Predict the structure.
Amino acid sequence: MTNTNENVLLIILISCVATIGGFLFGFDSGVINGTVDGLQQAFNSDSAGTGFNVSSMLIGCAIGAFSAGRLADKFGRRPLLILSAIFFIISAWGSGISSASFEFIIYRILGGVAVGAASVLAPAYISEIAPARFRGALTTVQQLSIIFGLFSAFVSNYYLANFAGASTAEFWLGYQAWRWMFWVELIPASLFLIALMFIPESPRYLVISNSNKLAVKVLGNLYGSQNVASKVKEIEDSLASDHHKPKLSDVFDKTTRKIRPIIWVGIGLATFQQLVGINVVFYYGAVLWQAAGFTESDALMINIISGAVSIAAVFITIYFIDKIGRKPLLFIGSLGMVATLATMVFAFANAGVDAQGQFSLGKQGVVALIAANAYVFFFNLSWGPVMWVMLGEMFPNQIRGSGLAIAGFAQWIANFLITWTFPIILSGIGLAGAYSIYTLGAVFSVVFIYKFVSETNGKELEEMEM
């Protein structure tokens, strides 16, 4: 489609509304970072119990990603995003007011459903309304929003803990600071719900659901009326030859009866993004750096620095992703993560013990800190945003919902396993052992990119192959 009549401002505004879901994804994921001590004290949990309290949200994320991907093909992208906003609001309030571990876990799982839904629907929605020539940049804004959400949660946690004296100290209206860390999320979640009322449904979904008149109207508003009819025809031609509605069985090749290769590539991208251990830094950053000998206040400040580094990296990706493509950025990121993770392993392996018998990095602290932030930089230059960009655009129209459902489910299951096992691994083989595992994940990701990932830069969604 020609771009002379594109309503670029409208496309950007609509995309920004969708990315509020990414902000909530990041905030909900990062807020737990500063509440671990409060959860341990309030619910009297051991390391495995704390790990499950922290990672319980990820069960909901897996359910939300899979369900939303499928339901979005039935009910539309926008209604599912609205439902996720409602779940964000309920979860934020409930997580903060919980008086027992079981109650807390239920609310976190509900929030996870919202995060999982937003994680797959926001990039898919943006991909389906954005022109190919700057689709990558707009979809990458989703990652920027995720990181900004994480960063905002870290800043909020830091100041709430400092104002109260500690995350476990009483702050306002008789409630501990860690509870208020969850309640801050009510503000952006409510904004998301209101803003979603003013955006249109995805035009590609409208064509898929045979609502062509409405699709023509939306496409006309976004791109101008000149080539709308041909675009609708192009979308129709990309669907199944018998024009049946998308269904989960479409992921199987009718000839071979096997799962289509593109689905396996999506699963691989989604899984490797987690196997490099990035969410250990985001979910357990405060715990990690306290274990390395830093104070709680210093550890929370390190989280803020990591968040700022992440935002800077994503801005670079926004600039380059539609210029050099997706695959080169994944290569650069993986190689950078191999080097920086290996450096962290070296620093942790050569750490000592202080006078109180506690683990201390000592002179290796600066090395570990620089390597950790370089690692965060390389991740957010590559796998952080690019994985979600590719999942949103790599699947053909007929199987986009199902492909996202399966890949999103795999991503969150891997996330859950990495997050849940970290406290156990930490107490078993220490930081050096844990990060050796993540280093291997980064090494294997290089091989995966080289052998299986194809470039999607500059292609219309209708050009994606089964």
